[in-house]
Specification:
29 strands; 516 residues; 28% helix; Rossmann fold; seven-stranded mixed sheet; six-stranded parallel sheet; 2 domains; alpha/beta
């Protein structure tokens, strides 16, 4: 992991805070990463933490623990190797009602939404203990909430938002996404719906994804301060290109479809099938970073018309997503094309799939594009494999129950290749620069495209640049002095209580804000 040289080291700071959000995808993950990066560059020993994460975008630590990909990214922002303590509880939905519960990096059980209420009570101490260990090892821990703390139907069993803040006495800042509209209602409503003891820990707000005239926004900032009695710690601008390592599939809607002009020759066009239970879609961030490579997420056969390479990504529900692939017509559009399958997508390419573990469907017919068969094992494979392909060293990670056996074809990253179809269980392989260039050159040759990979793109360096951009954003646009005071002193005492649907004591007079 990259070590970070300290900038101006502030006075010793020790503490923790929680970054909550008004909604999913409000920007909690990037704000947490930005604060971590800013502190790490000051020489502060800082670590990230998320008690409970619901995500299909996961990562494997060096010791074989599965955690949310966003926490791995935040660890990189701190210059640390990720650990299970940074995300002690991970929920991986397999359907609308059932999820696999991963505890301290290992699968615990498959439960439905109601069963999880019983499991959650046993996991509360796991989450608190993990945070305690991080606080012993590091000076500062920046915690990320989950969803919104104002999901009042979930408050009784909450271990990720105000339940955690109460248990650990954490000051809370609430992030709101102004790009969606309604940010002031979201900020006010979030606080007002909390019970008084929770409200007491909410210190203030951060407005995220702003693009516009600051002078037009300023009256609103004054109003929300007056209405809530809480500070606005800053307004973060909209920044393009901060799409690396996100955890929420909502972010797929804003991911880039094109990159810089080709280094040489033609553009190479990649279509990633957006499966209903797509997992580890960050595998394709490295492709989108390549000059001359366009990456689109698709859901219909018509979108494949001008595509050179089709990618079947990972899936948390291989058999179910394979049925969707057939129903959508995409399965019939794949034969004769260049196809790359990764993890669940690789399993779909097999002749047969036998699954009594994930779906309980027994034996089902695969797409038959590779000479392989799949057998689902009860024990999940978690690892950090390495190998060689195209003469290039490749380091990756793997997360799967499906065990693939090849009955022919060529070896490819512990997987299989047959003609213009490649498959592997390895995630993250495309982040290896030399391998990625060689693979794309091979795809171009198979497709008859005059594409020349750029020789100098470093995906690791690009990730560090993006993390630095987050740190810069925090340093330039947030009241970092106030953040340090929160870390040192905790939530300000005597924070006012907002009645739901009411106002703070007597409503402030804002008529001067509208004077002509």
């Amino acid at each position: 992991m990259t070590s970070l040289p300290p900038h101006d080291v502030p006075a010793p700071v020790k503490g923790a805070l929680l970054v909550a959000g008004t909604t999913s995808d409000a920007g909690k993950s990037v704000v947490t990463a930005g604060i971590c990066r800013w502190l790490a560059r000051q020489g502060v020993r800082v670590a990230p933490y998320k008690a409970q994460n619901m995500s299909l975008n996961s990562f494997v630590t060096a010791d074989g623990a599965e955690i949310g990909r966003a926490q791995a990214m935040q660890a990189a922002a701190c210059g640390l190797e990720p650990s299970a303590d940074m995300n002690p509880i991970l929920l991986k939905p397999g359907s609308d009602r059932r999820s696999q519960v991963v505890v301290m990096g290992r699968p615990l059980a498959e439960v439905d939404a109601m069963e999880y209420w019983d499991v959650k009570e046993r996991l509360r101490q796991v989450a608190v203990d993990a945070l305690g260990r991080l606080r012993e090892r590091y000076d500062v821990v920046i915690c990320e909430g989950a969803g919104s703390p104002a999901e009042i139907n979930l408050r009784r069993g909450d271990i990720a938002n105000m339940g955690l803040a109460r248990a650990a006495d954490l000051p809370v800042i609430v992030v709101g996404d102004i790009d969606r509209g309604g940010v002031f209602a979201s900020l006010y409503g979030t606080v007002a719906l909390l019970e008084p003891a929770d409200q007491a820990l909410v210190a203030g707000f951060v407005i995220n994804k702003f693009r516009g005239a600051p002078e037009i926004l300023a009256p609103g900032l004054d109003m929300i301060r007056g209405l809530t009695g809480r500070e606005v710690y800053g307004v973060l601008p909209w920044l393009d290109g901060l799409w690396l390592d996100v955890e929420d599939s909502l972010a797929l809607n804003g991911r880039p479809t094109a990159t810089r002009a080709p280094y040489g020759g033609q553009t190479l066009r990649v279509a990633v099938v957006r499966l209903p239970r797509v997992s580890n879609f960050t595998d394709f961030d490295a492709l989108a970073a390549e000059p001359g490579v366009t990456v689109r997420f698709v859901t219909s056969p018509a979108e494949l018309d001008d595509t050179d390479l089709v990618v079947l990504p990972g899936s948390r529900a291989t058999v179910s997503d394979l049925a969707w692939l057939r129903a959508s017509g995409l399965a019939d559009a794949l034969p004769g094309r260049a196809v790359l399958g990764i993890c669940g997508g690789y399993q779909m390419l097999a002749r047969t799939i036998h699954d009594e573990v994930e779906s309980g469907a027994g034996t089902v017919e695969g797409l038959g594009l590779l000479p392989t068969t799949v057998e689902f094992a009860a024990e999940k494979t978690l690892g950090r494999p390495s190998g060689v392909a195209y003469g290039c060293r490749v380091e990756a990670y793997e997360i799967h129950h499906g065990v693939v056996t090849a009955h022919g074809g060529e070896s490819f990253l512990d997987g299989c290749r047959s003609g213009s179809v490649w498959g592997t269980t390895w995630h993250g392989a495309l982040e290896n620069d030399d391998f990625r260039r060689a693979f794309l050159a091979d795809v171009a040759a198979v497709c008859g495209r005059d594409f020349v990979p750029a020789p100098d793109v470093s995906f690791a360096a690009l990730r560090q640049e993006r993390l630095d951009a987050l740190g810069d954003m925090v340093e330039r646009h947030l009241d970092t002095g106030a953040l340090l005071r929160l870390l040192d002193g905790g939530a300000p005492r005597g924070m006012p209580v907002l009645p739901p649907g009411g106002s703070l004591r007597e409503a402030p007079d804002f008529s001067q804000n509208f004077a002509q």
